Amino acid sequence: MAYVPTTFTAGETPPTSKWNQLGGNDSSFNDGTGIGQVIGPSHLTATAITAGYVQAIANQTSITSTTVVQVTSLSAAVTVPGGGRRLEIEAHLPNVALAAAGNIFVSIWDGAVGSGTQLQEDEITVAGATFVVSPTVKAYPAPAAGGKTYNVGIRVGSSTAAITSSATAPSSLIVKVI
């Protein structure tokens, strides 16, 4: 049933025809015919919300650099849509450990790690060799439309770090249009 615009005047006692239209309009909202040009799930492409996603299931060990290095396999090439929308970029490392107490720095980069633009860096303090942390870092840029590559970096303040990933606990990088 199609939606029929209906107007009421203050103090009016609506005739039966207007009451009937209200029921029909309610039905048209329920079945979607009265909503008009609304974007629904059937209108969205797979990349309308998730612009990019990668995961790593291989371990990365012996991270000793106090300058940032690329986290293996966490690089996502995306196409940013026009319209000035923000992105939500989230990097997650499920299991990171240090050989001794110290700090781990996990970062998100627009472009190459170390030479691109650092969007966010989080510092995690690890109390000792028996402690494992699961850092999640997020950034919310509003880039211009076009192609972009986002990367994840890691560095240590001291000691040696190791990232343990697996099929059931992957490291991941997701880029969403919000």
TL;DR?
The chain has one helix at residues 16-31; strands at residues 50-56, 60-63, 69-80, 87-92, 96-98, 102-110, 117-126, 132-133, 136-139, 146-156, 161-163, 171-177. It has 178 residues and is mainly beta.
Please tag this protein with its features:
four-stranded antiparallel β-sheet; elongated; Jelly Rolls; 12 strands; mainly beta
> Number of DSSP helices?
1
Overall geometry: elongated
Order of helices and strands: HEEEEEEEEEEEE
State mean pLDDT (0 to 100 scale). Answer: 89
Poorly predicted spans: none
For the record, the count of structural domains works out to 2
Any idea what the radius of gyration is?
25 Å
**Cross-sheet strand order for the largest sheet:** 1-12-4-9
Structural class: mainly beta
Instruction: Please report the total strand number as a whole number.
Output: 12
Give the DSSP E fraction (strand runs of 2 or more residues): 35-45%
Share in helix: under 10%
CATH topology of the largest domain: Jelly Rolls
Span between termini: 34 Å
Q: What would you say the CATH architecture of the largest domain is?
A: Sandwich
